[in-house]
Amino acid sequence: MNSASSHTSVPAISIQGIRKRYGRLEALKGIDLDIRQGEFFGLLGPNGAGKSTLINTIAGLVRPDGGRVAVVGHDTVRDYRAARRNIGVVPQELVYDPFFTVAEVVRNQAGYFGVRPDPAWIDELLGALELDDKRDANMRQLSGGMKRRVLIAQALAHRPPIAILDEPTAGVDVELRQSLWTFAQRLNREGMTVVLTTHYLEEAEELCDRIAIIHHGEVQALDTKAALLERDTRRSLEVVLEDPEAELPESVAPFLAERDGVHVRLQFNKDENSPVALLNRLQEAGVVVTDLQTRSPSLEDIFLDLTGEQLAPEEVT
Amino acid sequence: MVFNAVGFYTLLKKEVMRFWKVGVQTVFSPMITTLLYLLIFSYVLEDRVNVYPGVGYTEFLVPGLMMMSIIQNAFANSSSSLIQSKVTGNVIFILLPPLSSLEFYLAFVLAAAIRGVLVGISVYIVALFFVDLSLDHLGAILAFAFLASSVMGAFGVIAGIWAEKFDQIAAFTNFFVMPLSFLSGVFYSINDLPEFWRNISHLNPFFYMIDGFRAGFIGHSDVPMSFSFAFVLGFLVLLSVLALRLLHTGYKMRS
């Protein structure tokens, strides 16, 4: 990895007051965010939230109207060469150069960053991404999943200490998604800072140390996954009653969220009530419970609460 | 890093390989097209047109055709490469790296110049089977070939940056590059034109490229070679400043 990553006190990416407007649309409304070196960071948000605009601003593809971004202390405008050398970006779209082979595009990408060809590293990358036997194949001949892997190899060709993965698993099959997760986790274990944008909550929950939820161009929440979940004090108690006609006692009725015959869902604040207390009240009123289940809020609940929107359904192929 | 030499070289090599991999389309086909012009025009006009004393029409025609193919192919190279990259989205691969505007510009223009000169050389080699060509001033030939192809490479960069669709590049080619190259004295001396059209031709930058280049072969020109050289060089500087400005501001490349 690049030597810059040794200065761990400097944020991997520091975003200060970034604003970007496209006509009447304010895509980014003054984003402030520090991503620490070595962390697996998730940028979560629905489509159109501003995730890609933010990523592209970090990468220098979008010029902000205000604010600044520094990559390992290097300003992305004044010191763009050093800033860009420190990041590898996997774009969201499956783009490729139809004139070249897999090995050629990876080699070229390293070269653009000023890195002389390192056959050993390219072999290692292609091996890790299971592209060995495709190295001499033209990009046009590859499947979508293979092209996605080549994009990752291109992003890492110059050995950046920071990888930015913009929706890397959008539209890929479950097997490839799992292998990409494993690969991203391996990079992170080896010291690489990984920034992942996604609208798959499962992905963010599984991989990320910290998560920023972006909505309407603003950071709505920024914390560890555990802390984000801890913010929500709502809990659910789902019970199955013996008698579908059984009437809930007055002490329990205010907590009723849903009822479908014998299936009853109660919702309460964990700081004020407990599932045991609610069960006791049911028992005291003579309501027989045959089964029960408690439920804590998921990241999806937190997300819904913050943004008022559900994330797009998974596009698993 | 003052100059990203590895990055520049890699981009240049990639741009050269891009056209070389489809050499039949990018080098061989233009050579054949130019050869057809040569066969038809020289057959029809050889004994009927005498442009300069002691210079056969075919000998006059070949340098003009060479320069016309250089002009058209140099423009096609940089403009088509950029518009293809923009339309397919793979332009991102050259926007993400730490390449300066100058490195980006030089790589595209040099690759275009290489293709233009390669097509020009291939036309020259084939033409040798049909006509004895004199070489009055090799330095001038090389200088004009390089300058003209660089001008058109730069022009192609500007067109490629500006255009958002393939048909906008086709419009540049069909309504600007082709007419101006055909009307620049490839097939005739502008001194044979009526005064009005002669004066109009003096405003055509392609005329100076062809006139100076041809003078390197036959030793005759419509305007002094030094003037043509200065004009083409000045035009290159002008287009370079404009292209570098567009790249620096990220016009239509970075949002």
Set down the secondary structure blueprint:
The complex is a heterodimer of chains A (317) and B (255).
Chain A: E1 13-22, E2 25-35, E3 40-44, H1 51-59, E4 66-71, E5 74-75, H2 80-85, E6 87-90, H3 102-112, H4 119-128, H5 144-156, E7 162-166, H6 174-189, E8 193-198, H7 201-207, E9 210-215, E10 218-224, H8 225-231, E11 234-241, E12 256-260, E13 263-269, H9 275-284, E14 289-295, H10 299-307
Helix pairs in contact in A: 3-5
Chain B: H1 5-20, H2 23-45, H3 57-88, H4 92-95, H5 101-127, H6 138-162, H7 166-182, H8 195-201, H9 205-218, H10 225-249
Report the principal-axis shape of chain B. elongated
Rounded to the nearest angstrom, the radius of gyration of chain B is 18 Å
Strand content of chain B: under 5%
> Spans of chain B of 5+ residues with little confidence (pLDDT < 50)?
none
Mean pLDDT of chain A: 87
Rg of chain A, Å, rounded: 24 Å
Q: Percent range for helical residues of chain B? A: over 70%
The chain pair with the largest interface is: A-B, 33 and 30 residues
Description:
The complex is a heterodimer of chains A (317) and B (255). By secondary structure, chain A is an alpha/beta fold. Chain A is built from ten helices and 14 strands. In chain A, the strands form three sheets. Chain A has a six-stranded mixed sheet, with helices on both faces. Chain A has a four-stranded antiparallel sheet with strand order 2-1-4-5. In chain A, helix 3 runs parallel beside helix 5 (144-156). The radius of gyration of chain A is 24 Å and the shape is elongated. The model of chain A is unreliable at 1-6 and 313-317 (pLDDT under 50). With 255 residues, chain B is mainly α. In chain B, 75% of the residues lie in helices and 0% in strands. Chain B is built from ten helices and no strands. Chain B has helices at residues 5-20, 23-45, 57-88, 92-95, 101-127, 138-162, 166-182, 195-201, 205-218, 225-249. The interface between A and B is medium-sized, with 33 and 30 residues.
